[in-house]
Write a structure and sequence with these properties.
Distance between the termini: 9 Å
Helix content: 25-40%
Number of helices: 4
């Protein structure tokens, strides 16, 4: 469970970094982890949807590659991939995002396979 918590923490840092990089500095974050899954939801008031948000969602919906899970998790947070969020997508199972009524929301899930 400790290894999954460490991975979840790195994933969370990348998502928070995306929000901060887009000047979304006032956000609510919900972090849940148990033996079955990790679920993160972050939401922030925004004047408009960031131009990069659709690309982020596309990258996050990259299919998780279980067989090289450790490799992708090692890359998360290393800043060696210039915010190519497809690496993050390969470490999670599902992502949903929306911009509605001036609130930008992103939710991600990672299922524990071990």
């Amino acid at each position: 469970m400790l290894a999954e918590k460490n991975k979840a923490t790195r994933i969370m840092k990348e998502i928070v970094s995306y929000f901060l990089d887009n000047e979304l500095n006032d956000f609510d974050l919900k972090f849940q982890i148990d033996e079955k899954e990790f679920h993160l939801t972050i939401s922030a008031p925004a004047q408009q949807q960031p131009d990069s948000f659709d690309k982020l969602l596309q990258d996050l919906e990259t299919e998780r590659q279980i067989e090289i899970d450790e490799y992708y998790n090692a890359l998360i947070g290393s800043n060696c991939y210039q915010h190519d969020y497809s690496f993050l997508g390969k470490a999670i199972d599902h992502a949903e995002g929306q911009f509605e009524n001036g609130i930008l929301t992103l939710s991600i899930w990672r299922y524990n396979i071990y």
